[in-house]
Amino acid sequence: MPAPFIPKRPVVTAYPKMPEAFAEGEAIAAYLSQRGLDTPCGSLYDEDLRKRVKSGEFDMLIAVGGDGSVLRAGHLCAPHGVPILGVNLGRLGFLIQVDRKEWHEYFEKLFNGEAWIENRMMLHADHMRAGDTLGGWNALNEVVVGRGANLRPVRLTASVDGRQLTSYVADGLIAATATGSTAYALAAGGPILPPELRNILLVPIAPHLSVDRAVVLSEGASVTIKVRSENTVISVDGQPPTPLMEDDLVNVRAADVTAQFVRFGDPGYFYRNLTAHMNENSLGLPR
After folding, report:
1. CB-based contact 92:71 (threshold 8 Å)
2. How far apart, in whole angstroms, are the C-alpha atoms of residue 188 and residue 166?
3. Mean pLDDT of the chain
4. The CATH classification of domain 122-256, taken from the options 3.40.50.1360, 2.60.40.10, 3.40.50.150, 2.60.200.30
5. What burial letters (b/e) apply to 159-180, b meaning 16+ CB within 10 Å?
6. Helix crossing, 19-34 with 103-111: angle to 10°?
7. CATH topology assigned to domain 10-114+265-282
8. pLDDT > 70: what percent of the chain?
9. What is the Cα–Cα distance from 164 to 147, expressed in whole angstroms?
């Protein structure tokens, strides 16, 4: 088993568009205060709180919300090595092990030394035009190069380690982490990868007379996506899209930073969590 993790300087953040998240966050902060830990609670978008996270003031961030809250927490925490513990108030919770009804139980385990740190690879994407870098992002789930508001498919060429892989006529192309294999990539027909893998997964979205199979690339591979048509955008982890022009490049590789998550029990939790979600979707269907 991995080494136990017991935090000494936690902070609680809540998703601002979910009022019940603040109530739950305040309850968690009060519980931690009773244990002698002075724990602030605030919005994940509060600039002062974010500065305190970046300065290294905290050794764990508790994200109260859904998977989207954990994604945003990952973007904030990964560059500064701050582990994340998610408390799920959302629907799916693929990234979250602790439900809102169970956090008392899990926090007891946390302070009994029964938690451990899981490391998950992130991606880094650079937007290039005529040799200039116009933007750069880290992604926990995926980088998507796809069509904008226009309904026509886009034309893309994907190269791996400098060698052309294939061309696509499709709604888009997803470059996903193992973490992202249970997100958009799964909806587009991609395989589910164990979360500890450091591979890049390429999945086309609604390909038209093109390669329709997902490709799992080896660890350390780098991907270049070349835009061959107008009306193309890039979106990272579901954030608002950035327009691309024909002949723009999107370079994707493993990021230099790693997202860290506080986990409980043996690493098989991932498959139990996955099975539970799949069983939820099958409820009410004929057997």
Report:
1. no
2. 18
3. 92
4. 2.60.200.30
5. bbeeeebbebbbbbbbbbbbbb
6. 40
7. Rossmann fold (3.40.50)
8. 93
9. 21
By three-state DSSP, how is residue 19 classified?
Answer: helix
Domains 10-114+265-282 and 122-256 share a fold: no
Q: What tokens does 78 get?
A: 């990964």
Question: What residues does each domain of the chain span?
Answer: 10-114+265-282, 122-256
Per-residue pLDDT tens for 23-82? Answer: 999 999 999 999 999 999 999 999 999 999 999 999 999 999 999 999 999 999 999 999
pTM as predicted: 0.92
| Catalytic residue annotation | 67
Token output for 58: 């905290």
Distance between CA atoms of residues 212 and 155, nearest Å: 14
Residue 89 pairs in a beta bridge with none
Tokens of 83: 């582990």
Q: Which of 230, 47, 235, 68 is nearest to 135 (CA)?
A: 235
Containing 102, the helix (H) or strand (E) segment is none
d(CA 243, CA 147): 10
